[in-house]
Amino acid sequence: MLELKNIHKTFNPGTINEKVALNGLNLSLDDGDFVTVIGGNGAGKSTMLNAVAGTWMVDEGQILIDGEDVTKLPEHKRAIYLGRVFQDPMTGTAATMEIQENLALAKRRGKRRLLAPGITKAERQEYVSLLAPLGLGLETRLTSKVGLLSGGQRQALTLLMATLKKPKLLLLDEHTAALDPKTAAKVLDLTETIVNRDRLTTIMITHNMRDAILHGNRLIMMWEGRVVLDIRGEEKKHLTVNDLLQQFEKASGEQFANDQALLG
């Protein structure tokens, strides 16, 4: 479903601020893979997601989604393949619009996104049935402005919107990092439910090693712009944080240094 072939990306090349973000990155995801991504600051995790989404073009390499070469496609044209949830709960929804209007926009992805002649009664019933299982009371607040919601409610809504049209690839960029632990756990459980139910091919960046181990069928660790660990199957099921740290040190020759990931 996703192939990254020899991806390179350098910011500010030839200057004192030159930063090699991706350095010959190779990664393949099968249909239905749920991959968690861990790595220290500057390892290239978010750069990888932005490269896949087309937020910026790569310097070298090839990106394929479901067999289609999207390497040269701009961000708005790749959007038809992707669902995405960002770290900031304020991103991904229109704060001044109603909950039902945000869902209507998400439902119309790939079509002309005009709300006229309005949201039908059938659509409202559909949105109620989608929101009720979240257990956040949003199904009774369809006409509420999204800007009035809490961070956790907005992230849950954004996740629902990102998966409403069952994207070929779901990108989650530390989507629980800004939430309190209880709310983060709830959003992660919702993520697991939706991804498994719809068999969505998913990349989830997380700052928390325990979450990376607990969720998904596959875990990769990045370091200096490339993948140094790729753990899956039975090995992942029995993985511990200590195991992960030891494997990273063996693969990279360095100790993992990211207190947020270790203590999260």
Concise account of the structure shown:
The protein is α/β, with parallel strands linked by helices and 264 residues long. The chain is 35% helix and 23% strand.
Shape: globular
Number of helices: 10
What percentage of residues falls in helices of 4 or more residues? 25-40%
Order of helices and strands: EEEHEEHEHHHEHEHEEHHH
How many β-strands, per DSSP?
A: 10
Strand order of the largest sheet: 6-7-8-3-9-10
Largest sheet descriptor: 6 strands, mixed
What structural category arises from helix and sheet content? alpha/beta
Mean pLDDT: 87
For the CA atoms, what is the radius of gyration? Answer: 19 Å
Poorly predicted sequence stretches spanning 5 or more consecutive residues: none
Q: Approximately what portion of the residues adopt beta-strand conformation?
A: 15-25%
Distance between the termini: 31 Å
Describe this structure in words.
The structure is a single chain. This protein has 264 residues and is α/β, with parallel strands linked by helices. Helices cover 35% and strands 23% of the residues. The chain has a six-stranded mixed sheet with strand order 6-7-8-3-9-10, sandwiched between helices. It has a four-stranded antiparallel sheet with strand order 2-1-4-5, with helices on one face. A hairpin with a 7-residue loop joins strand 1 (2-11) and strand 2. The longest helix is centred in the last third of the chain and has 18 residues, at 181-198. The model has no long low-confidence stretch (mean pLDDT 87).
